[in-house]
Amino acid sequence: MRKIFILGLLLAASFAPRAAHAYPQWQFSSGTSRCNQCHFAPAGGSLITNYARDAVGEDLSSFQGNGGFAWGALGELPGWLALGFDGRYAVLQHDAGNPEGAMFAHFPMQADAYARVAFADSFSLMASVGYRGSARNSPAGLGNDNFYPATADRFISREHYLMWRSGAIGPYVRVGRFFAPYGLRLAEHTAYVRRDNGFNLLYETYGLSGGIVENAWELHVTAFLPDLVRHFGGQDKGVAAMFEYRLADAYALGLDFKFGLGDSSAKRVGGGGFAKAYVAPIKTILMAQVDVYNLQGASGSASNQLIGYFGPTVFPVRGLWLGAYAEISQTDIQVKGTATQAINGQLNWFPYPHLELVIQARMQSPQQQEAAKTFMAQLHMFL
Known about the structure:
By secondary structure, this protein is mainly β. Helix content is about 5%, strand content about 50%.
């Protein structure tokens, strides 16, 4: 079991791109209240808008600069075209009490390119293509035995979709491959509220999503299916919904629901709530999420799962975050000793536009086993 846990945590740490999600810490703290003010996607995440590029260049980095694509080297792009790129390199040390000592690795983590083309006034086509990094080499490819299929081994389009939207405010419809809007939408895929809610790395599903985004609230409903050709992403099919209400440009309350039908008629249904609160006098945002699911196996077995997250993020100076958060994931609420808990510390520093340094420390106690400690540093360049 320990070997399985170590391998799982290493894989989780080594596949850590953040392109699919945004930084919810910027909501309210940066003067914006809606995630789609900074992202083309209706609920945030992925390719950023010109508004966000201006903010990165002038307000969100420690030192000001040009936030345009490639530092503006290509000039101003036409209004119908948006481009982006994410590149990451990581250094990782993981200690799970192995007699041979802690594991150390350094590796290219991510190289993703994005493009968005707008046409016919209200339509747009968004697509990404990228490289999947890994902390360890596998001569046989990633493959089904290594959790991910070997088809097109190292390269993947994490998202691609066609969208109709008349404006940043109002209704929208999109179809393609993407994460269904749900919960806090954290960047860290190892967080239990992402991983155990079905939004782990490469778990994007194909879906038909629709909703309404207003200044004070937003609603998203998504019907999703697995990738039946390449078998990337989540393998459940079902529906997910998210509602968020915002007030005083500092608070948000939300509700989530998700139903998933897996292989052999296994069912997972449930949801929960999330909250964000920005306390301006101390430059701190508090975020929390709790979800409860009922799981029914094909054999008739049933259990209730609990997933939780809570933590503050402080902004001591411009361009720098200091965050801490606690997590819990309990596979069966009624069975003692089935909880995995974790505490995390994180530093995010944006010294100049297009450059980010991330330092993460994590201690995880899996179901009464010895705690595992992980340290990771990432250098992130985004164009």
